[in-house]
Amino acid sequence: MNPISMNSESMNHNISRYELDTVELHKDTLRYVDVGDGPPVVLVHGLLGSHESWAGQIERLSDKYRVIAPDLFGHGSSDKPSGDYSLSSHAATIRDLLVHLDIDSAPMVGHSLGGGIVMQAMYLFPDRVERIALVSSGGLGPEVSLLLKAATLPGSELVLPVLAANWVRTSTETVIDKLSAWGLPIRLGKSMEEAWRSFETLANKGSREAFLASTRAVVGPRGQTVSAKQHFEKFAALHSLLVWGGKDPMIPASHADNIRREVPNSRIEIFSSAGHFPQLDEPELFFRILDDFLMTDKTVEIPTTTAVSN
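The chain above was modelled as a monomer; its predicted structure follows.
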């Protein structure tokens, strides 16, 4: 991998490579990708993310599926209203979007916070969820990055605007670009690239408030406060897949063991060289595994396996 320039246009969160549709839900505008003509599949991004968190996967999947990838409220190009950013509220948004699109049910793929949202949707609206794929998912254990814990502390709303200020970000990018130009091994993988791109959205007041509200709804100073364990028994009758990056610094891959123990028929895939965004770090491998999972007949038992990336 070659050193990257963090000033590249690809880091601009205001630029989308997809045409976005819109729907008004409860007087707020939700924007989403809707492409492809096959059976539907819903992609739900994580904290500070957007439909762009699925870049590359949308193109691959849309050759066979109808891909629905919303920008959750408070994220991306969707409105950022003051109000409820709980898992239940986000799950209800997904349900409302499916109603608007006249889709009775669909497989749901959730990344990070999106994994918690998908599991909450399964709990609240089981008839809407055909099967679930969780990617570096929240809600499976207390351990989480110190950065997310810090966001729950009093005063973080005063610190974040400074950290996300344009002059701070520009200075950081300049330093990294200069170090790369001098031949030093400053390399960002796709996961880190997306994490930085997501961090830039905190410069926006609405995005920042939504981030704090969403984070504090599921994380406290000691770690994740919301657990899906009480819902694990529902997985027994539902096809489920977990994909994790073995080098995930945000949520440890060891959380997959909680599913492995409680739901033996779930399929577990660990990409040993990937970070928090395995769908970006190992796009071809991720697509092959997800496509295989989506195509597996519902009556066939799902094997538990581990994928090792090079």
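The longest strand covers residues 28-35.
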